[in-house]
Structures
1.
Amino acid sequence: MDTSNMKGYMGKFLKGCGCLSIGFFVLLIIIGIFADDDDNKKALEELAQKTEQVQKSMEKENHQDTVVVNQPTEGDPYQELDDLIGLGSVKQEVRSLANFVELQKQREAQGLKTAKVSYHLVFYGSPGTGKTTVARIVGRIYKDLGVLKKGHTVETDRGGLVAKYMGQTALKTDTVIQQALDGVLFIDEAYSLVPEGGGGQDYGQEAISTLLKRMEDYRDRLVVIIAGYKDEMQRFIDSNPGLQSRFNRYIDFPDYTGEELTDIFKMYMKKNQYTLAPDAEDFLEEQFEYAVAHKDRNFGNARFARNVFEKSIQQQANRLEGMKNLSMSQLTELTVEDLQGGFAARTNIGQ
């Protein structure tokens, strides 16, 4: 048997998960003892390929954990809030909260009694209604008001908080919380921490217990915003008295209208230097109105508008394929044909 080849294969196995690699390594020894050189080499190659596939699958699974840290951007957060398309009721609620917090701060500075303020928030709404964007703005507003020192936002979901084995969830959740100190911890689809039905072994409750304790430990350094569908979020809040006592401010994010989705599409056009052909304006508005009228529960709202835009400019590129020396108008104009391709793309469904 070629020992140099054997060392190479051993090296591959020892790079991955310890227990996985050791198990295959033992198998390699058995093969090395009982198999002929040719058969042994073939078996080793097959095992190496299988091991790499398993390890890649494990790595991919681990990367599904979502924790994104967004540092606060420069500029006026109140103006950025006002500039958002639609969301009139949301803007009013956030402004009202900011006004209340500011007044309490002024009363405190004058030695007056102040009302107890809970900065934690519940965002109700469908996908793509701006919950994450507004959470980032709230973090910056809280920094502006002196509630938070940094005002950054750490965005996560169940995957970023819950581990797969007993005893690991508390540590995993606490690690994310430490990243969020002096800023906002935004948990999307928070209701998934308490699966409906509650059967079987689930570590979501461990994450909730850790979160509630840290909200108390760091009550002056941590703001938590939880988000998701309205009914599911209400079920989540009702599942735990600790959640009910800490989350008493709710903001409802309505779905976008067809007109608002048209405006969002045009916003992407403006940012990316595209224009509409004269006969494409009405078509665009009609298609968004139709999409809203026939939406289902998983309709993506602003994400849908973004996907239509991305598919439309892709369709434009296909339409202009092979053409040279294109004019400025040809490079920037989106036609009805391009929009038809954008709305027809199956990837837009449910997004």
2.
Amino acid sequence: MKRLAAACVATLALAALAGCAQAPTTAAPATTAAPPAAMAPAATAPIGAPPPAARPGASPGAKFAAFPCLSYTLPCGKAATRKPVAKSLEGPLAGDAARGMRIAHARDKGNCLACHVMKGGTQPGSRGPDLSHYGSTGRSDADTFAAVYDMRARTPETLMPPFGTNGVLDDQEIRDVVAYLQASR
């Protein structure tokens, strides 16, 4: 009985996610006489080739089609969001790297490990770039602060959450995370 209930719950969850997933904004025209090999270009794409959505001519929303829509009341792609904010670092960094590491690894705060490989972290994600040696890249404190505050100001279609704009992290917490990233060599 427990197995049947668990299987039913799992099936419902998968159906809900499948029904809620964002669809690409444009669809390719259907062909009637396409050979089976042409129907699955992603399976035969060479390693290192850009995904279909990153290719020229692909719709901007297509690369996010794998992510579920999290709005309960609005259709996918219509949920209201705050406008990007380009905030610069004022004054010296004055961040604490140890506190920044705790913030970056905490699931209720930065949760940077969900997407990035970071020094001292366990079970990192692979969606974002590897940040384990970020301090040796030569990026400035101000540049890093602006990216953590709201990356959308630089890259409008980024998947990185706007930690400062959304109020997830305050200015001092972002300074601490920047100090941690700069200390990662």
3.
Amino acid sequence: MGKGSSGKGQTPAAEPESYEKALAELEALVSAMEGAQLPLDDLLAGYRRGAQLLQFCRARLQAVEQQVKVLERGQLEPLNSP
């Protein structure tokens, strides 16, 4: 029964509140994984969380990109229009 920081038996982490918070958590996670020698279970848990955060960030970026495309088609005109 090792350290309490292991991801065993824990429920999945909650979805981040925002893109910015997800990105900050992802950056901190990458730094921790690169800079420390973690037990294999902790590395695996970190990798899983990182994959969740990356998927969240990509989904948010795609949603924003779609909104921008809608705005460009419906409301915005090119700057170079005659």
